Every structure is written in C-alpha cells, then in structure tokens.
Amino acid sequence: ETNNAFDALSGEGLSEEPMQKDKEAAGSGGGGAWEVPAGERKQQQRRRKGQRRVVDIDHDDENEDDENGGSVGNERQREHPFIVTEPGEVARGKKNGLDYLFHLYEQCREFLIRVQNIAKDRGEKCPTKVTNQVFRYTMKVGASYINKPKMRHYVHCYALHCLDEEASNALRKTFKDRGENVGAWRQACYMPLVTIAARQGWDIDAIFNAHPRLAIWYVPTKLRQLCHAERNSAAASSSVIPGGGDHFPF
Amino acid sequence: ETNNAFDALSGEGLSEEPMQKDKEAAGSGGGGAWEVPAGERKQQQRRRKGQRRVVDIDHDDENEDDENGGSVGNERQREHPFIVTEPGEVARGKKNGLDYLFHLYEQCREFLIRVQNIAKDRGEKCPTKVTNQVFRYTMKVGASYINKPKMRHYVHCYALHCLDEEASNALRKTFKDRGENVGAWRQACYMPLVTIAARQGWDIDAIFNAHPRLAIWYVPTKLRQLCHAERNSAAASSSVIPGGGDHFPF
DNA sequence: AGAAGGACCAGTGGTCCGTA
DNA sequence: AGAAGGACCAGTGGTCCGTA
C-alpha cells in the first residue's frame, strides 16, 4: 500500500513476498548497479546455491549455474565492502562506492515514509525517526542490504554529506587520493561536523533536526560525545584568557 | 545541579538522598496539602513503622509514635485514591482531588525539565517526553507518589483539562453531582477529546504536540484507537450519503 | 588487515494483575 | 467494589564481536 513516486524511481520490489525470508533478495550494487537494487530479481524458482545469485550484479552474471563450494545454498551473502570514491565515481570490482552508501540513506528515508503512511492509515503511532520498525520493514520487503548496524555506522558520514556537500566531496577526494581505507575516511568525517557544531552553539541535535533529510536519523553517540568534549575544552581555554569570562577579549 | 525557579516553588527536596530508598518520601496530599509534597519531610532518624509517617499529611499528624499493626515498618504506602472533585474543591478524608491529580502532571513536567537540563549539561541525549528516565528521577529524588502507571492512566484526563478547561470543569461538576466514581469520570473524558480531534482533522498527535504542556506526554493508546475508529465510522457514514464521496453533499 | 551484519543486551513503553 | 502501582514483557536503541 501507499505507493508513491519514489517506488517507481527506486525500482525495487518492495511489496512482494512478505512471507519469503530475505535470503534471496539482497542486492549488492557493484559500481553503478545500485540504481537497480535486487529485490525484483528472484522469481518462483528457489535458489539452489543462493550465493552468486545474489552477489553478482557487478559481474553481469545472470547465469544461475555457477559453482561455488559444495555447501548447501542460501547462506547469507554480505554486501561488498565500501571503498572511498569521489563523487560520481563508479566502484570497480567487488566494491561499493560512497555515492551508493549515501543512496542507501535516501532509500531508507523512503521506507520510513511508507512505514509512516501505513501507520497513519491504521491510526497507529507514527515513527519520526528510522527505527527498528523501519529496518524490519526493509527486511520484510526484500531490501535486506539495508540493515541497522551498517546504517548507524555511517550516519555521521551522511550527515556531513547533507550539511556541507562541498566539504564532504573534498574529503572524499583527499582520502581517495591518499589511498586511505573506508575506516579512515569514516573517522575523518567527525571533525568537520564538530566544526559545524561549534559555529552553531554546539547543539548537534538542533543541527540534525533542522535538516529535513537528516532529521530522521538519531545523532550518533560518538558524534554527540565529541561535540560535548570539544565544547567543554573550548570553554575551558576561553575562560583562561585574562580578562576572563566566556567571551573573546576584544 | 541545574536548579531553577520551579524548585523553590515546589518546595521539594529533590537533590537530597540519592542513595536512600524512596520508602520514606512519598507524600500523599490529602485535600489542600498538595502544595507541600513530602520529599522534604524525612530526616536522619529512620522510620520505625514507616507507614503513618508517610500518609498522614491529611491528618495533620506530625506525631511519630502512631501504632499501626505489629508489622515491621517500611512497607510501601499507597497514595490515597482519587475522588471526583470540582475545581477548587478540597478532598476530605483519605482521598485526593482532581486538582491534585492535575498538579502531579505539572510537577512531572518540572521533573522532565530538570532531567533535560542535566542531559544537556552532560551532552547526553535529551528526552522530549516524560520517559522512564523521568520516572526513575522522580523516584530517586523522593517524589515516589509520581509513578508511571498512574500518570499514564490519567493522561487523557489531563489532556482534556489542558485543551478545554471549561469542558473539563463542567464534566467534573456533572460527575461529582451524580456521585460517580473516578473510573466513570475517567472513561467519560475520552468522548470530548474525540470531538476535539474530529474538529482538527483527527490528528490527535498533532493536537497533543501543539500544546506546550501536553506535548511532553505520549498519546494514550486507547485515545488514539478511539480517534481512529471514530474517524473511520464518520468517513463511512458520510460516504453513504447519496451523491457520495467524502464531502458533505451541499 | 579491514569491513559487513547477526545477534545480543540494558534499559523502554506499555499495562496487567496481585495487592490493599 | 474500586483503585494504586510493582513488576513483568515484547519489542527498542545501540553496538559488539564472531564471521568471511
């Protein structure tokens, strides 16, 4: 129910197979493949090996008969790991790029909107954030490449992308050129956010809430803590200045 | 920390004895006694019987030496039950009136504000609603006459009081005069709220959120369900009208 | 080694039901 | 009987750590 324009755009099979376990639905978008998440792919024929079926978009491998070890199929397939890409860059090999990462946040927002519409229709309480309920919905609906630990892990990266796309793009370029891994880039996303918070009275919650696409995400604990710590040390150093108080002495 | 004007007004001992169990702090305001919640009362002498110590504000019984059964003291004392009173009326006997009930909601809001200030100071996430955390705080602080089941039970009664004090007052008078009990009055509070919701597009969440003192309370499940059911049956009956559709046919 | 995500855990919202 | 509230429970936010 409650289809909207997003559904057509995202091209995902969101209302199908609510009973079916999500094993066969994950779509690991390799490179530019992420415009076509895999929910739509599986049909009534069950997967005998499961694995390749699910991971090989980036190989253009539509062949069902790949071999891969003797294990009975259906074991869960992980998404390809992210690599640092610059804006517009397509990840090569069994990797996903950062445009795809950010796209997952947009998709997640669309799922939230659906969950909200369903809740409103039913007169139930309506989530304002991406909650467990939303992640359960993405699973049910076959979009199991969206999961809670992953989305929570990179929220602050998406926040930087939303709040200062220029800075976010520049950081991606720098870290790509340096050959840094995703973990290093992810860590580096904190600092610019703390700087933004400093400019806005350190209220990171207010900053998230003021941005329509960011407001639906919980502020990550570590980001909150960094802002708090930095605020305190900023206050401490400014109060040491002779002439004192919390104001700049000029 | 973070004392504010409310503290002085409420007269409660909120920052004391965080270690002490709450057993000796509950203050059952009988009648007009509720301006002086009992948190402040206990001192370093421990209660030997506990019970009377805690319940007898309405008796003006400051005497420590009441007898009451041989049981070792400290058993929890319940608040006096509510009775339907009209506005300004003081409950007699071992009863509490509805002004006192509504006062508990105001107090609870003050406790929330303190919890929020503490959270902000610490850079922790800041509750926007009266959560378990707030109830834990009221307990810790000796205001154990505020508890979750009670506050949730009467939220919609408080909502009516906030949203249409005239109607609320009239309902109280009516039910008092009829000699109805609190349960009957409580049930009767639902209907006027549904009527208010009908006028405002059935969005009971929006109605709560638009009111500053009500916004901090979760919409009670039953009220939400009533609004939903009533909306649907209103829609159904209007769509039956010849000339059809969801609009009035004139 | 670096990274994805199943699965766990402490504390939540919600309210039932043993208690007085 | 009517009512107050301790205590339970399903599902939450949060993220660790066994996995690949």
TrEMBL record, chains A, B:
Location relative to the cell: Nucleus
Domain Floricaula/leafy DNA-binding C-terminal: 69-235
The entry's keywords: Activator, Developmental protein, DNA-binding, Nucleus, Transcription, Transcription regulation
Region (Disordered): 1-88
Coiled coil regions in record: none
Compositionally biased spans, kind Acidic residues: 58-68
Annotated transmembrane regions: none
UniProt function note: Probable transcription factor.
Entry's family note: Belongs to the FLO/LFY family.
Name the record gives this protein: Floricaula/leafy-like transcription factor
Taxonomy of the source species: Eukaryota, Viridiplantae, Streptophyta, Embryophyta, Tracheophyta
Range covered out of full length: 132 to 381 of 381
